[in-house]
Specification:
Helix content: 40-55%
Shape: globular
Oligomer: single chain
Bound molecules: BIS(adenosine)-5'-pentaphosphate
CATH superfamily of the largest domain: P-loop containing nucleotide triphosphate hydrolases
CATH topology of the largest domain: Rossmann fold
CATH class of the largest domain: Alpha Beta
Strand content: 15-25%
Number of domains: 2
Number of strands: 10
Number of helices: 11
Amino acid sequence: MTMGATSQEDAFAFAPRREIAQVSARKVVVEQPKAKSAVPMPVVLGAGAIAAAAIALKATKKTAKKQRKIVIAGAPASGKGTQCEMIVKKFGITHISAGDLLRAAVAEGTPAGKQAKEFMDRGDLVPNEVVVTMVKDRLSQPDCAKGWLLDGYPRSEEQAQALQESGIEPDLFLLLDVPDEILIDRVVGRRLDPVDGTIYHMTFFPPPTPEIAARLTQRSDDTEEKAANRLAVHHRNVDAVVGKYSNIIKNIDGNRAKGDVFNDIERLIKAM
Ligand code: AP5
C-alpha cells in the first residue's frame, strides 16, 4: 500500500531547482539556473506567484526535514504489515513490502514472479537475483524520493550488503520481537481484505461486519507447516542482518496490543 505525498509537495520537490533569492510582500525575484556564459537574469513575479513561491519554499523545507528512511523487520506475523498500515496513515511514508512486491509479480505471472513462486510456496527466501533488483527498482521510483518504509527487506546479510553497495542506507531499523509460540497462532488466523488491504485476525482483530468477513482471503503460505519453515528461515538469518544495522536498531516488544506497539514506533519516528 502506498500513500503519495500531497500534490503541492510533489510538485515542488520534483520541479527544476531554482533559488528563491528574495521574497517581499509585493514581489519575488527568482534567479534562473546558472548557464556557463550567461549572467543570471532576475525575473519579477506578480503577487499570486509570490504566495505560491512562499508556500512552495515552506513545503520544500518541510519535505527535506521529514525525509525518513526506515526498515521494519521481524519474524513472520510479528506485525510488520499491521504496523506499516498505521505508520503510513500517520506519517504518509511510502511503504514498500518485499512480500507484496513478490506476490504482485506472482499474480501478474512475470518471469520474476514465476521464479519466486516455488520458494514462496515453501516459505523459503526467494533468490537474491530476483528480490534484490525488484526492491532496488522500487526504491528508485519518484515516490521514494522523500523517504520510505521498507518492510521485510533486507532478510539476509547479502541483501543488506546489496543495499549498502547501492548507497541505500536506512536511518532507523525497527525490529519487532514476538515469541515464536505466539506467531503460529497469528499466522493461521490472519485474513486479508482484498478491497482495502486491511489485515485482520479472526481472533485478535476480527472483521467488523459479516459482509467484510465474507470477502476475506487467506494467504497460501499461512499454514502451520509453512509458517514453521518461514520462522526457521527467519531465525537462520536475522542475527546477520541485525549485525549490519546495530547502530540504528530499535527493538520493539511486539507482543502487546497493536496500539501499544505503535505508540513506541510513533515516538521513535517522531524523534528522527
Ligand atoms: P512476507 O509477506 O513479508 O511475510 P512474512 O515476513 O512472513 O511476514 P508476514 O506478512 O507473514 O507477517 P507480518 O509481520 O507482516 O504480520 P501482520 O502484520 O500481517 O513474505 C512472504 C514470503 O515472500 C517469504 O516467506 C519469502 O518467500 C518471500 N520474501 C519476502 N521478502 C523476501 C526477501 N527480502 N527475500 C527473499 N524472499 C522474500 O500480522 C500477522 C497477523 O497477526 C495478522 O492477522 C494481524 O492482524 C495479527 N497481529 C498483528 N499485530 C498484532 C498484535 N499486536 N496483537 C495481536 N495480533 C496481531
